[in-house]
C-alpha cells in the first residue's frame, strides 16, 4: 500500500484549457505535463531552482546549427548577461555563424524544399530552411583572417584566449554598426565567460587560422591547455564549497568535453572527486545506438562524469534544441533574478594554480608510496 501511494504521489494531470495569452511560466508548469513536455518542464525547474543557485558553476555545451537560427543572440547571450552560464563549450561552427550577424550580414528564413543545384548556381547557401548569400562566408572568412593577423594572436594559446581576443574585435564591430543585438563571443568578452571549442580545426574559424599559419602567422591553438583549463574550472567550483552543473544542448564533442572534466580530474590527475552535481540535456539522439550524444546520465556515472548520489538531479528531454532553448531561456529569466557574474576567464591563472597544486600533491604522494 505504501508503494502504491508513492507511485501516485505526483501532481494530478490537469486537463483545463490553456488561457488566452498564457505566459511561459504557466505554460511550462501547468501544461507541460507528460512525455517530453514533462521532461522539458523538469529541465526548466531543475535549471532554475537548483542550478542557478549562487554556489553553482554552470557549464553549457552547444552543438547543431543553433546560431544560424538566431539562438545565439536571442537565447545564449541573454543567459550569459544574466549570469546563468559561466563557461561554454561550443562547436566552432556555431561561433563562426554567429559572427555573421555581428559584422552586419543577414541570414533568411527559407524552405528545405528547394533545388540545391539551383542554389549552387545562384551562390546561395542552405542550412536546412535557412538561406544566405555565399559572400557572407567569404566576408566572414576575411574578417577572421584580418583579426587573427594582429600581434596579440602571434603565440600558442587556448581556444578561450583566442575567443576572448576575437570577442574584443567583434564587440567593437557591433558598436560601430550600432547593432540592436550582440554575439556570443562579444558578450563572452564583456562578461568574462570562457568559451572553448573542443575540435577547433573542425570549423571555418580553425580553417582560417590554418590558412594564415600557412603564410607565416604564428597563431597556434593549444588544445591541451583547453583540457586543463576546463578541468580547473570544475575543480575550483567543487573545492571552494560550490557545485558544478552542466547544461547540454545537443551532444557530440562539446558534450563530451564539458563532461570529461571529471574523468580528467579523477582518472587522469587522480584527484579525489565525485562528478558533476547537476545534468540537463536536450537531445534528439537515442541512447541505444551507443553514441555519446544519446548517452544517459546513468551511463555517465560509470565514467565518473556524474556524481552517483545526484542522479535525481539529472534530466534528459528528447527534442529539438531550437524548441527547448527559447522556452528554457524565457522560463529562467522569468523565474530568477540575475546572478553575479563569476568572470571565470579573468580567474584562469588562479584556477590553474589550484589544479596544479592538487595534482602535484597526488603525484608526490604516489611516488612516496612506491618507494
What's the CATH first level? Alpha Beta
- What best-fitting shape do the alpha-carbon axes yield? globular
- Count of the separate structural domains: 1
Overall pLDDT metric? 94
**Count of DSSP-assigned helices:** 16
Compute the number of strand runs.
11
Helix content: 40-55%
User: What is the CA–CA distance across the termini?
Assistant: 60 Å
- Element pattern in H and E: HHHEHEHEHEEHEHHEHEHEHHEHEHH
Structural class: alpha/beta
Name of the CATH architecture: 3-Layer(aba) Sandwich
Largest sheet, described in full? 6 strands, parallel
List the helices and strands and how they pair.
Layout: H1 2-7, H2 24-31, H3 35-51, E1 56-62, H4 71-81, E2 87-90, H5 92-102, E3 108-109, H6 116-121, E4 124-127, E5 130-133, H7 134-148, E6 156-157, H8 159-177, H9 184-191, E7 195-196, H10 204-214, E8 220-221, H11 223-239, E9 243-249, H12 252-259, H13 261-268, E10 278-283, H14 297-302, E11 314-318, H15 321-335, H16 348-370
Parallel strand pairs: 1-2, 1-9, 2-7, 6-8, 9-10, 10-11
Antiparallel strand pairs: 3-5, 4-5
Give a description of the structure.
The protein is an alpha/beta fold. It has one domain (21-97, 108-335): Deoxyhypusine Synthase (3-Layer(aba) Sandwich), CATH 3.40.910. The chain contains 16 helices and eleven strands. The protein has helices spanning 2-7, 24-31, 35-51, 71-81, 92-102, 116-121, 134-148, 159-177, 184-191, 204-214, 223-239, 252-259, 261-268, 297-302, 321-335, 348-370; strands at 56-62, 87-90, 108-109, 124-127, 130-133, 156-157, 195-196, 220-221, 243-249, 278-283, 314-318. The strands form three sheets. Strands 7-2-1-9-10-11 form a six-stranded parallel sheet, with helices on both faces. A three-stranded antiparallel sheet has the order 3-5-4. β10 (278-283), α14 (297-302) and β11 form a beta-alpha-beta unit. α7 packs across α10 (204-214) and α11 crosses α13 (261-268). The radius of gyration is 22 Å and the shape is globular. The mean pLDDT is 94.
